[in-house]
């Protein structure tokens, strides 16, 4: 991919970094050497600014791919320059060189390598989503260790290249179906978040999902209930939010898509607070309808003073993030098996609303980053197969249940279902999954 740019950059770097030797070998005059040095330097600077031939250098994907191109050029040039510099020093007399020319070449090669390394790495770190925090930290920590840094950079280039290809295909797909209104549902979609998160403008709980839905014709709104509160209090806020959406848009009804505790908030609002006439469908995503048995165990084992201290700390933090009256313990207690069981008995599904559910599971503790890689095995002791927080059997609700089972050993975690880490998972495209949900709603008249 982009081989002409890489080949040109490689040859340009070799010419520039070994210019003192080439000047001596080919007998260039001082003037010719100066002019050549200037031209090569200008080309080298231009390559660092415009590594891609054509458009797109300053888009996110272009910046990211430019970093991969410059890094690959640097890795190849460093290898070749190392061999050439050994040759220059080994054959000084035979080539008619003085020690000055090879020394200057070594210095120039080092300078070119530093410039390319900084430019390439900075581009990839700034623009790539898939590198993630862990790989970014490793790259910054290991850049000075020979051989290890080469492996780390090569791995980073591979990840960036795969991300570029994936996102380019995604953009082409969206462009091809742009006019189809694939997700233009009859009723707007309201995304209802789970516990301990809010609908933030600059850090979207739903990752890249809302933008993908909008690109394909959906009208998307958010539940905007508080992040930490009882099911009843969050449900009341959700009811008020949906009423406002219906009143402002005149849409009549909405389609609720709710993740985690958001599904419990939605069901309560539908069955107890009169939201059903304004709701066409409810699709719950990895919602603990029957509770989380491990939460019961934790509350039983955790001393009351410790629970109070944790709750106080969380509530203080959640106030800073926008919750007016956060209640950490109320939110946690409403996730217990006992609390969910009581609600299930007292809150029958509202007539006239289509209830559906979706679930997923991790296949090992390595299927997700922290903290789910730690919680998966613990939750498994109490709830069996799970997504890192919620047991699969607890996710089932409504007229249909869809279990996501992508190929491979990874599985899909609780966070993956809302694109929390913005990670492209082999065999499972979370954005396309939500597009398929919206498409089904549209096809069924919702």
Describe the protein.
This protein has 446 residues and is an alpha/beta fold. It folds into two domains: 3-173, no CATH class; 182-443, 3-Layer(aba) Sandwich (Rossmann fold), CATH 3.40.50. Helices cover 57% and strands 7% of the residues. The protein has 18 helices and six strands. The protein has helices at residues 3-17, 19-25, 30-49, 60-90, 92-95, 100-127, 132-142, 148-176, 209-215, 231-249, 261-272, 293-301, 304-320, 328-333, 337-346, 372-383, 392-395, 430-443, and strands at 189-192, 220-222, 254-259, 279-285, 354-359, 400-403. It has a six-stranded parallel β-sheet, sandwiched between helices. α1 (3-17) runs antiparallel to α3 (30-49), α2 packs antiparallel against α6 and α4 (60-90) runs antiparallel to α6 (100-127).
């Amino acid at each position: 991919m982009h081989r002409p740019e890489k080949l040109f950059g490689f040859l340009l770097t070799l010419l520039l970094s070994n210019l003192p030797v080439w000047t001596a070998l080919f007998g260039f005059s001082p003037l010719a050497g100066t002019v050549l040095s200037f031209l090569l330097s200008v080309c080298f600077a231009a390559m660092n600014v415009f590594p891609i031939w054509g458009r797109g250098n300053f888009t996110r994907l272009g910046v990211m791919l430019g970093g991969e191109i410059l890094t690959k050029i640097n890795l190849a040039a460093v290898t070749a320059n190392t061999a050439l510099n050994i040759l220059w020093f080994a054959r000084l007399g035979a080539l008619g060189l003085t020690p000055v020319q090879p020394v200057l070449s070594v210095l120039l090669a080092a300078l070119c390598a530093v410039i390319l390394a900084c430019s390439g790495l900075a581009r990839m770190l700034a623009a790539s989503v898939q590198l993630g925090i862990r790989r970014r930290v490793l790259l910054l920590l290991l850049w000075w260790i020979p051989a290890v840094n080469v492996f780390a950079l090569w791995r980073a280039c591979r990840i960036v290249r795969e991300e570029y290809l994936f996102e380019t295909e995604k953009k082409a797909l969206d462009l091809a179906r742009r006019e189809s209104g694939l997700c233009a549902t009859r009723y707007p979609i309201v995304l209802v978040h789970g516990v301990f998160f809010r609908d933030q403008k600059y850090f979207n709980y739903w990752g890249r999902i809302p933008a993908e839905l909008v690109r394909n014709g959906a009208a998307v709104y958010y539940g905007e209930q508080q992040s930490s509160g009882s099911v009843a209090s969050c449900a009341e806020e959700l009811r008020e939010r949906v009423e406002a959406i219906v009143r402002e848009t005149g849409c009549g009804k909405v389609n609720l898509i709710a993740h985690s505790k958001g599904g419990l908030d939605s069901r309560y609002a539908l069955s107890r607070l009169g939201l059903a006439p304004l709701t066409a469908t409810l699709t719950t995503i990895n919602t603990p309808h029957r509770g989380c048995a491990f939460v019961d165990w934790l509350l039983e084992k955790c001393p009351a003073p410790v629970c109070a201290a944790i709750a106080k700390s969380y509530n203080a933090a959640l106030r800073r993030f926008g919750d007016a009256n956060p209640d950490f313990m109320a939110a946690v207690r409403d996730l217990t098996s006992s609390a969910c069981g009581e609600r299930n008995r007292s809150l029958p599904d509202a007539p006239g609303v289509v209830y559906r559910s979706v679930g997923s599971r991790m296949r090992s503790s390595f299927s997700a980053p922290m903290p789910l890689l730690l919680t998966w095995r613990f939750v498994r002791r109490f709830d069996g197969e799970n997504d890192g927080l919620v047991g699969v059997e607890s996710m089932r609700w409504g007229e249909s249940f869809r279990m996501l089972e992508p190929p491979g050993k990874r599985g899909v975690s609780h966070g993956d279902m809302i694109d929390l880490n913005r990670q492209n998972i082999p065999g499972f495209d979370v954005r396309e999954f939500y597009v398929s949900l919206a498409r089904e709603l549209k096809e069924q008249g919702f």
